[in-house]
Design a protein that fits this description.
This protein is mostly helical. It has one domain. It has 3 helices and 2 strands; from the N terminus they run H-H-E-E-H. A two-stranded antiparallel ribbon has the order 1-2. Helix 1 runs antiparallel to helix 3. It is elongated, with a radius of gyration of 18 Å.
C-alpha cells in the first residue's frame, strides 16, 4: 500500500473511532448523568429510564458500537484491499 493510502486509511479509521466514541460518550454521560432527571419520568419494567441507561443502556450502546466499528472497518479493509479474506 502506498504511503498516501496508508495515511488515508488511518485517517478514516481515526475518524470512525472519534465519531463512535463521541456517540458513546453522549449516550453514557448525557443519558446517564446530564438528562437523568428528565429520563426518570419514563419507566421501563418499573425502573426509571435514567437509572436504566446509567446501569445497562450505555453498556448495550457500547456493544452495538463495537459491532458497527467492526462492520465499518471490514468495509474499509475491502476498500483498501487489506482484508483478511
Amino acid at each position: 500500500m502506498a504511503a498516501k493510502d496508508v495515511k488515508l486509511y488511518w485517517k478514516t479509521n481515526l475518524r470512525y473511532l472519534l465519531i463512535l466514541l463521541s456517540i458513546w460518550f453522549a449516550v453514557s454521560f448525557g443519558a446517564g448523568i446530564l438528562f437523568k432527571e428528565q429520563m426518570d419520568l419514563i419507566k421501563i419494567a418499573g425502573f426509571p429510564l435514567g437509572f436504566w441507561f446509567a446501569q445497562q443502556g450505555s453498556i448495550y450502546f457500547f456493544i452495538a458500537i463495537i459491532f458497527i466499528y467492526v462492520r465499518l472497518m471490514n468495509k474499509l479493509d475491502e476498500e483498501f484491499d487489506v482484508n483478511e479474506h
